[in-house]
Amino acid sequence: MTQDITGMAAVANIGASPSEIFAALCAGQESRKPLKAFDPDKYRAAYAYEIDDRPEGGGDIPRRATRWLTRVVREAVADAGLGEDLSQVPVLVGTTMREQRSLELWWRDDADVALEDLHFGTALKAAFGASTTYTFANACSATLYALGMATDMIELGMADTVVVAGTDAATESGFGTLDRVQNDIPDALRPFDATHKGMLMGEGAAAVVVQRAGTGSRPVHARVRGVGMNCDAHHATAPDPDGITRAVLDAYRRAGVRAQDIDLVMLHGSGTPLNDATESSVLRRIFDGAGPGPRMTAIKAMTGHTLGGSGLLSLVMAVLAMKEGAVPPVLGLADPIPEAAGLGLVQGPPVSGDLAIAQIDAFGFGGINAVAIVEAAR
């Protein structure tokens, strides 16, 4: 069973809408900037992929993740031709940090943050009357987990329309933890390149409206064919190739596709040596003997790692890639790692092609894996 994607919205460091973000990805312009949210003198890493919406004088403000969330939900439901009354529409939110940055500002600077402000459901109810909201804190796979639940809800007859969204703002505790635990400190996020050193944080939000096939009032952007997921709990941080393989094959089974049917892969591509090598090795095995293989790209090279919302942001970009018949490049990819040999990683200018089916990868700490298969609306 497939579900229709009838509304989409996104905001990231490189654009305030899906079309702006996709155009920036295709242009391949460097987007990292010196760290602004926190005192860079405290950390080894000096760069991040932040949204430039802080006060001119510097410093930070609370509830940025919530503001982005309500914005993309509002824009996605408008794109789908729905009103803003979501009292009968479930809203599923994926995130890694929730409003942890607001809590940090309350603790450190006595920012005006009430306990209820830390829950996205509060803002969603105030803005849209949403009475059924769920938050998934499933690390980097959170929004694809939420998408999987949305498709289940529709298939089970629990809803005809579900809004799936994700949001994350950079937190100092998260940034500082990465700064301590990464062996090398990158000055840019460079997925699958031999110079990759690790992950840098990004910020952003994305939302899609998923509806039972044929029930929407607007043209369909794309169709969700299936979502596979698991939690292999292999290691706290190291990805397990077997767990990832099972998630990919489960997605294929649910979607009714084979490896040779995939035209595009939106890679997780976190820029960490272990993730890049593991993801590359898994995909080499899966696509071995599957013809020329799909084109592959990794948008974190320009957006940074947008954490819980990263899977959904990649999905929205996959939909636009299929619509435009163009795959943006992996920024900065000059010397692919040996494990990626033979994969269709896009380097240099965007690559044109007929793209009908896309695979979106999202892998989180603790072996929280999710893979979505999306089909172009033709």
Automatic annotation (TrEMBL):
Keywords from the UniProt entry: Transferase
GO terms, biological process: fatty acid biosynthetic process
InterPro entries from the UniProt entry: Beta-ketoacyl_synthase, Ketoacyl_synth_C, Ketoacyl_synth_N, PKS_Beta-ketoAc_synthase_dom, Thiolase-like
Coiled-coil ranges from the UniProt annotation: none
Any GO MF annotation of the entry: 3-oxoacyl-[acyl-carrier-protein] synthase activity
Keyword Transferase: yes
Entry-linked Pfam families: ketoacyl-synt, Ketoacyl-synt_C
Residue span(s) of domain Ketosynthase family 3 (KS3): 1-376
PROSITE patterns xref list: KS3_2 (PS52004)
Family classification: Belongs to the thiolase-like superfamily. Beta-ketoacyl-ACP synthases family.
Protein name (database record): 3-oxoacyl-ACP synthase
Higher taxonomy: Bacteria, Bacillati, Actinomycetota, Actinomycetes, Kitasatosporales
